[in-house]
Please model this.
Amino acid sequence: MIVSCVVTLSLCVYTALHLNVPAKGDSKVTRFFRKVKWAVIGIFAPEIILFIAWYQWYEARGLLKDFEAAMKDVSTCAIVYSFKHLPMSQESFPIKRWTMMHSFFAGMGGYAIDTHPKSPDDSEFICGSPRITLTDDGVLFLARYGCLPDLSTETIIDKSKADPIAKSLVCIQAG
Model:
């Protein structure tokens, strides 16, 4: 009976976690152990997970307000870059609609820019990193200059790794 309760609790915590976007190059093993670590923390100290979730909501709400204020005066995009992992066109700029989902996506590291080598034969990248993950301030900066791509909520949901079937099965098991 106790084993069944521990397994159910572990599965519930494990499926309820939504971690930040992993760094480019993180292996599946690294990502799995990171999630296991947070699941253990969630089992023994759920108030830590609750506080982090509340803080992320607070930050996303603040980004939404800042974004709405920044969108009142948008310049034209003068920065040259490419978002290789998303199909973009010039019509995608500037942002037409920004939601809490976009704010959460930005807060979890969903907006990143792939940098290019300084020259074709040079392997050194700008800022020493081939990928720069944007902070909230970076997202606001690009938005102010009309350089942030207009992602639809469908595109963000498509990037989600949440499995509704697994979550439903865990809820049924817990019930």
